[in-house]
Design a protein that fits this description.
The chain is α/β, with parallel strands linked by helices. It is built from eleven helices and 14 strands. It is globular, with a radius of gyration of 18 Å. The relative contact order is 0.15. The structure holds 2-keto-3-deoxygluconate (KDG).
């Protein structure tokens, strides 16, 4: 059985190593893949549901997941479509993504290609705004997966991960609203919600989410201001950890994966968020979404230092 089964698209990553220069380090990205690897590094039993191309990068991903202990029996290999790719560039305003992913193997997923058996053996199904934005058939696949999860008693976790290059804001708002109503755990960022609601006040944003019918636990991520846990009864502000970040790509995914992993270990929401904050902070200290994802020992070490 699995703690976490994630569904979405992995992307080969080419990450600029010096601002303004043309050198790129090849790594791995794709929000849900990042999250499931982060969870596996915290000791969770994980599987990933996706499709990759029958190409060198698809093979690299399969090797990566296997090395990380992520089950790949639900990964389909497509002979005709490629594995998706993105570039990360760094500038004064942080990082920016350029995508080469249209028509990718993962974007061609359909509800029929879903290995629902894996979801039915999981505690959490983890999906994101990106999983639903890459194509309409992927969006249908996410909703089919959510239904299968709930029918089997699994919980659904949703990270907003709004990428407006992938879909128009009106569609994103409508679909994310629908998905958040089905989420047992909803992990929106304040930046994403500001695009959807036009409002920059955290309390009003949480009201919007609740009024929209979200029934689960909501953790609203405020960046350097930490996060707020809304468990439906009360709201608790949690501080952020300060670090000298070099590349924040994948930090939110690390937060999601680490949070779910700790919930599966029995942590309270507050303890799980404190842990996930530390893990996410550590993940920004190196380049790339996956390579700098910390392991449990490093996170505990960091938590000890900050509480000392
Ligand atoms: O959260 C980081 C991801 O956004 C990155 O790895 C690339 O999955 C990606 C995407 O679609 O933006």
């Amino acid at each position: 059985d699995f703690d976490i089964v994630a569904l979405g698209e992995p992307l080969v990553e080419l990450n600029q190593t010096h601002e303004g220069q043309r050198q790129y380090l090849q790594g791995f990205g794709g929000d849900t893949s990042n999250a499931v690897i982060a969870a596996a590094r915290q000791g969770a039993r994980c599987a990933y549901l996706t499709r990759v191309g029958n190409d060198a990068f698809g093979k690299q991903f399969l090797d990566l997941w296997q090395a990380e202990g992520v089950d790949t029996s639900g990964v389909e290999v497509d002979d005709h479509a490629h594995t998706g790719l993105y570039f990360v560039q760094h500038g004064p305003d942080g990082h920016a993504f350029s995508y080469l992913r249209r028509g990718s193997a993962a974007s061609l997923m359909t509800p029929a290609s879903l290995d629902a058996g894996l979801i039915e053996r999981a505690r959490f199904l983890h999906v994101s705004g990106i999983s639903m934005a890459i194509s309409t058939s992927a969006c249908d696949t996410v909703f089919a997966a959510i239904e299968r999860a709930h029918a089997a008693g699994a919980q659904v976790s949703l990270d907003s991960n709004l990428r407006l290059r992938l879909w128009p804001v009106d569609r994103a708002r409508a679909i994310l609203r629908e998905a958040m109503r089905a989420a047992d755990v909803f992990l929106p960022s304040m930046d994403d919600m500001q695009h959807l609601t036009g409002n920059d006040d955290p309390e009003r944003t949480l009201d919007w989410i609740r009024d929209g019918g979200a029934p689960g636990v909501v953790v609203l991520k405020l960046g350097k201001d930490g996060s707020i846990i809304d468990d439906g009864r009360s709201r608790t502000a949690m501080p952020a950890l300060r670090v000298q970040a070099v590349d924040a790509t994948g930090a939110g995914d690390c937060f999601a994966g680490s949070l779910l992993a700790r919930r599966c270990q029995g942590d309270s929401w507050e303890d799980a968020v404190r842990y996930a904050n530390a893990a996410a902070a550590l993940s920004t200290l190196g380049y790339g979404a996956v390579d700098p994802l910390p392991r449990a020992e490093q996170v505990w070490e960091r938590l000890k230092e900050t509480s000392a």
